[in-house]
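Example for tutorial group B:
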C-alpha cells in the first residue's frame, strides 16, 4: 500500500527543511527526499579525526540583516557571534582583504597613510568607465589596474574558468571596497555560526517537522510509490526538465581536507586568518581554517582547500550559477516551464538559478510557505 503525504520535498538543505518544519507545524505530512547520504545540503558540517568541526562543502558564513530570519532560526540553534576576516596571499605577502586602508598601507609601505590619501589614490587610478559591461571593467572603474591585477584578475579567472571580461559586472561588484580600516568581510548586523554547527540545526528542523526522511534516494524513483498533493523541488531546475533546452552553466568545486597536528599548526593555527584567497598561479582559490571562528581549543586544526573546475551535469555537484546574458536567457526559459508545471513549487538557489545567501534562502522558504498555505486555503 502506498504511503500518502501532503508534500514531497526534494532536497534536505535549508529550503527543504525550513519548508518541512513550517508545513509540519501546520499539520501537513511531508516526505523529504535527499540524494546525498546526509541532510544539510552544501551547509553540511562534521568533525574530523581530531574532533574539530569543518565545513564539508566549503565555508558557509551566516550573516543577515533580516530579524525575521534570525528569530526563526534561533528556535533551532544557539549562536556564536563572530566576525569573518579574510586575507589574500600573493607576491609572498598576506594582504588585508577586502581592499581597505590597511591594504593601501601595505601597498605603499606607509603605515601612516590616511583615508584621504587612499581615496586620492583610487581617484587617480580608476578607469573612467561609467557603465561597465563586465567584471573587469567594473573593477577597473572601482580600483584601477594595479589593484585589479593584484587581487581580482587571477582569482576571478580561476574561480569562474573564464576571464573577468567574460563575466557579468555583478560578479566582482559583490566584493566590497572600503577606504577606512574596517577589514571585516561582511557588513550585516548579525554575523554568527550555529553554536554547535550547522548539522545540529538541520537535525532540529527535521525533528520538529516530524517529516519522513529518505536519504541516498533519487526522487524520481520514489514518486511512483507514494501518493502526494504537491511537490516542492529544490534541485537544479534544468535537471528537473531533463535539460531539454540545454544544461545551465555552473562552476563546480573539489575540496581537499587537511587534518593537521600540533607540529603543523604552531599556536594551534595553520594560517593567519579564517580564509586566505590565492589570486596567483596556484590551482586552488582559497583555504579555510574554520577553527578561527568556532572557538574550539585544540593544538590541532584543519584546512579546507578549494579547487574550482568545469561543471558537467551528472558528474559533478553544481555550486555557483555563472552570471551572464546567455545563462540568464536560458534560465528564463526554464522558469517559464516551471511556471506551467502543475502542483510543483521551485524554490532555492538551484531551482531558481540565482546566487542566494543563506539568509535569503531561508527568507525565500518562509515566503514560499506563506504562499502555499494561502493557496491551499483558497485565499
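The residue assignment follows.
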Amino acid at each position: 500500500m502506498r504511503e500518502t503525504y501532503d508534500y514531497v520535498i526534494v532536497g534536505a538543505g535549508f529550503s527543504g527543511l525550513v519548508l518541512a518544519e513550517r508545513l509540519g507545524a501546520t499539520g501537513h505530512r511531508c516526505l523529504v527526499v535527499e540524494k546525498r547520504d546526509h541532510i544539510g545540503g552544501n551547509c553540511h558540517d562534521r568533525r574530523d579525526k581530531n574532533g574539530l568541526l569543518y565545513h564539508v562543502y566549503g565555508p558557509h558564513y551566516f550573516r543577515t540583516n533580516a530579524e525575521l530570519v534570525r528569530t526563526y532560526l534561533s528556535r533551532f540553534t544557539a549562536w556564536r557571534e563572530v566576525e569573518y576576516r579574510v586575507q589574500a596571499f600573493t607576491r609572498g605577502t598576506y594582504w588585508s582583504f577586502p581592499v581597505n586602508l590597511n591594504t593601501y598601507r601595505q601597498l605603499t609601505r606607509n603605515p601612516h597613510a590616511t583615508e584621504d590619501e587612499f581615496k586620492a589614490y583610487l581617484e587617480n587610478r580608476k578607469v573612467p568607465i561609467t557603465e561597465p559591461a563586465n567584471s573587469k571593467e567594473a573593477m577597473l572603474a572601482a580600483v584601477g589596474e594595479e589593484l585589479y591585477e593584484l587581487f581580482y584578475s587571477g582569482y576571478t579567472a580561476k574561480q569562474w574558468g573564464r576571464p573577468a571580461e567574460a563575466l557579468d559586472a555583478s560578479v566582482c561588484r559583490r566584493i566590497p571596497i572600503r577606504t577606512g580600516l574596517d577589514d571585516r568581510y561582511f557588513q550585516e548586523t548579525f554575523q554568527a555560526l550555529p553554536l554547535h554547527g550547522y548539522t545540529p540545526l538541520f537535525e532540529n528542523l527535521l525533528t520538529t517537522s516530524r517529516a519522513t526522511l529518505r536519504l541516498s534516494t533519487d526522487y524520481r524513483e520514489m514518486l511512483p510509490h507514494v501518493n502526494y498533493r504537491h511537490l516542492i523541488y529544490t534541485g537544479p531546475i534544468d535537471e528537473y526538465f531533463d535539460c531539454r533546452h540545454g544544461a545551465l552553466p555552473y562552476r563546480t568545486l573539489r575540496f581537499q581536507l587537511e587534518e593537521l597536528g600540533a607540529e603543523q599548526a604552531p599556536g594551534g593555527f595553520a594560517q593567519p586568518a579564517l580564509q586566505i584567497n590565492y589570486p596567483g598561479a596556484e590551482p586552488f582559490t582559497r583555504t579555510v581554517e574554520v577553527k578561527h571562528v568556532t572557538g574550539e581549543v585544540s593544538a590541532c586544526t584543519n584546512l579546507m582547500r578549494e579547487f574550482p573546475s568545469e561543471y558537467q551535469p551528472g558528474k559533478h555537484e553544481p555550486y555557483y550559477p555563472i552570471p551572464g546574458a546567455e545563462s540568464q536567457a536560458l534560465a528564463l526559459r526554464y522558469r517559464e516551464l516551471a511556471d506551467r508545471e502543475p502542483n510543483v513549487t521551485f524554490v532555492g538557489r538551484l531551482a531558481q538559478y540565482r546566487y542566494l545567501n543563506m539568509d535569503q534562502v531561508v527568507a525565500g522558504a518562509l515566503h514560499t510557505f506563506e504562499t502555499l498555505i494561502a493557496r491551499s486555503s483558497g485565499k
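Residues 3-80+191-247+320-376 form a domain with the Rossmann fold fold (CATH 3.40.50.720). Compare this with the pattern of hydrophobic and polar residues in the output above.
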